[in-house]
Design a protein that fits this description.
- This protein is an alpha+beta fold.
- It has two domains: about 70 residues, Roll (Nuclear Transport Factor 2, Chain: A), CATH 3.10.450; about 70 residues, Nuclear Transport Factor 2, Chain: A (Roll), CATH 3.10.450.
- Helix content is about 25%, strand content about 45%.
- The protein has an eight-stranded antiparallel sheet, with helices on one face.
- The protein starts with a helix and ends with a strand.
Length: about 150
């Protein structure tokens, strides 16, 4: 009985995810992407239900751009290394109370409404991780902790 229930549940999840993957990306979205990122390569689209995510490369950088269903750009995320951050952001991190934590990832977020921000994911241990968000001037603007 349990195996039958597990199979039904797994089948339901597979059908649900397949439906989310097969929704057609509107032409207005793909056109807006092409206009903004003409030199993109390795493009893959994801349907995020409330927006569309384009995963792609621009030169050597891995990027993600988000658009509304009307083709309006929301934000772009670009992977960075800590060393490639602007001096102000590195200094802001080094002066913060989190400077002794291990840096996991660094992302530049160009947001339509908030401007340029830098997200630095850090960890103290395997259970205590934080997402720190810095302004372009190096000011810590957000500190979201998470337990895994």
């Amino acid at each position: 009985m349990l195996q039958k229930w597990m199979f039904s549940f797994a089948f339901f999840l597979a059908v649900l995810s397949a439906q989310a993957q097969f929704r057609k990306i509107p032409a207005v979205v793909t056109d807006a992407f092409k206009a903004k990122y003409a030199n993109a390569s390795g493009l893959e689209w994801k349907d995020k239900l409330t927006s569309f995510e384009a995963d792609f490369k621009s030169g050597e950088k891995d990027m993600k751009a988000f658009f509304t269903s009307k083709g309006e750009w929301i934000k772009t995320e670009t992977e960075h290394t800590f060393n490639s951050l602007p001096v102000e952001v590195k200094d802001g991190f080094k002066k913060s109370k989190y400077a002794d934590l291990t840096v996991l990832s660094v992302t530049q977020v160009d947001d339509k409404e908030k401007g340029v921000l830098y997200k630095i994911a850090v960890k103290k241990n395997d259970y205590n991780k934080r997402n720190l968000v810095f302004s372009a001037t190096g000011q810590l603007v957000s500190d979201n902790g998470s337990l895994i």
